[in-house]
């Protein structure tokens, strides 16, 4: 079969299959063109869900008469001119195929006027070869693109369009995303002659909440926390939802890279990993994040619709986003826990507790950015700080080479990445001169490796009364620490390194002690937090009798329940019980109290702690780091003198002696 050159219209219609998926795709491409033109006001008119009419008018710089014909041609653009421009793209569009593809499957009219022209000019394509006709028109400075009868000449595509309501919902979502990316642009959306959305431009940051409320609703604004995190060429800002918010959903999940809206898997994974341990079940975090990256370090030309990007330093970007979001979440949870105390000084100290503790190792993103400096072969004294893997993977020649500019590609980029990660894996050394670290187990002998036994969540009577408070070293107070988490063993033990050596810590026991501290604050009761929607469940007469008997004890834990006509209505619970399945928890609670003739607050608090800890079957290293950090802050007495079922030191001397003995035997034989 002979090879033929495709006609221009057919080639454009094939390209339209990637660019124009539905009317919302047309709106996205045209809005991005308006933003690239410097528009500050955009009006969008939609008829019949976009299938009949899509009209977008802006006040941008416009297109002069001589360029109108090229604007509708294939792969014609003013945004790039060489390969170097393609490697550092800051504009929304750059391929020059949007207008040509749209005009091939619709009746498109482009009217535009520049500041230098006295009159406007209008262009439209017609005929089999899509010849462009230009004629004078009346129009202010800016451009108007009118798309009529989308897919009129491709009925196979038109029949796949959904209902008018569904297609307009997709258009509305695209406009929402664009409005979130450019707060300085006023956008008006009209459907079938009726004004549906009006997003007013924001002149300064103090008015951002008004625009944010109009797009995402007041609930997100009230439950969100502002994020600002920078490190070198990387910067991220925006809003993330509070982890203790009563409602978490995936409806508000917007992320932008250099102003371009993205659905990148790497970014989403970093955010979900930061929320790991804060959300339960199928809960999803809500967020609006703006990531700024050196344009030389990101490739936006990897997806037909430009929905995905590829980072040259993907691991660095992932860890940067993870640390930025995690720092805000930790500060928020520390603030919520500190609100259980009426002591303002304790509250202020908890908020100022350092985020980077020794249990987590050194966090490179918390330090001021410093450009990598050149290393010479003479500077070999610091090589012992690197891990064994780094020493094996880096030759002396690589360690002696100088690090180039981060904006360059190839070998200099690899050296820069290696320098940053070598700095991240250096051993954490405390630089605070006003802190005194107390060693663990001052009067207990280490445990032999062969003597490790499994323990249960048993707690002695004299160690249950604890008070959640911050133990940040200040005014001569001592700061206690477990040490640094090295690995997780059997998914429930943490191998830690302290000044006394290696130790094995039971994460189940630590989690149990932490929950006891949260559920049994000293000399106070837990404050109830009202539920957004009260929960109702039916109770038997026996369960109602048990509840009436222990009502005062149950209310001590912030649980507010009203009994009426054989049904219980849960109006409020305390913060530690907020994320639980309350009907199941209440049923189990009444069953437990029906067996116990007399129950104290400590016994009931321990029962609640066991119920909360039963859901955590396996522990990750990140969860272990967060858990030990909370223990150090809230329960310093367990860190200062930990119980035997919490932590055991590991005696390595017998193992070292055995290895030396075997080595000596082998040497004698040879």
Commentary on this structure:
The chain has 23 helices and 23 strands. The protein has 670 residues and is of the alpha+beta class. It folds into 5 domains: 195 residues, 2-Layer Sandwich (Heat Shock Protein 90), CATH 3.30.565; 135 residues, 2-Layer Sandwich (Ribosomal Protein S5, domain 2), CATH 3.30.230; 67 residues, no CATH class; 110 residues, MutL, C-terminal domain, dimerisation subdomain (formyl-coa transferase, domain 3), CATH 3.30.1540; 85 residues, Ribosomal Protein S8, Chain: A, domain 1, CATH 3.30.1370. Strands 5-4-3-6-2-1-7-8 form an 8-stranded mixed beta sheet. Strands 9-10-13-11-12 form a 5-stranded mixed beta sheet, sandwiched between helices. The protein has a 5-stranded mixed beta sheet with strand order 16-23-19-18-17. Helix 1 packs across helix 5. The chain is globular and about 90 Å long. The termini are far apart. The relative contact order is 0.07. Belongs to the DNA mismatch repair MutL/HexB family. GO terms for molecular function: ATP binding; ATP hydrolysis activity; ATP-dependent DNA damage sensor activity; endonuclease activity; mismatched DNA binding. Pfam families: DNA_mis_repair, HATPase_c_3, MutL_C.
Lateral arrangement of strands in the main beta sheet: 5-4-3-6-2-1-7-8
| CATH class descriptor name of the largest domain | Alpha Beta
For the largest beta-sheet, the strand count, sense and barrel status come to: 8 strands, mixed
Radius of gyration: 32 Å
Instruction: Give the total of beta strands.
Output: 23
CATH architecture of the largest domain: 2-Layer Sandwich
Q: Alpha-carbon distance between the termini?
A: 75 Å
| CATH superfamily (homologous) name of the largest domain | Histidine kinase-like ATPase, C-terminal domain
Looking at the structure, the CATH topology of the largest domain is Heat Shock Protein 90
Domain count: the total is 5
Q: Can you tell me the residue ranges where pLDDT is under 50 for at least 5 consecutive residues?
A: 340-361, 374-415, 427-476
Structural category: alpha+beta
Q: Count the helices. How many?
A: 23
Mean pLDDT, rounded to whole units?
Answer: 75
Please report which band the strand proportion falls in: under 5%, 5-15%, 15-25%, 25-35%, 35-45% or over 45%. 15-25%
Any idea what the shape is?
A: globular
* Residues in helices, as a percent range: 25-40%
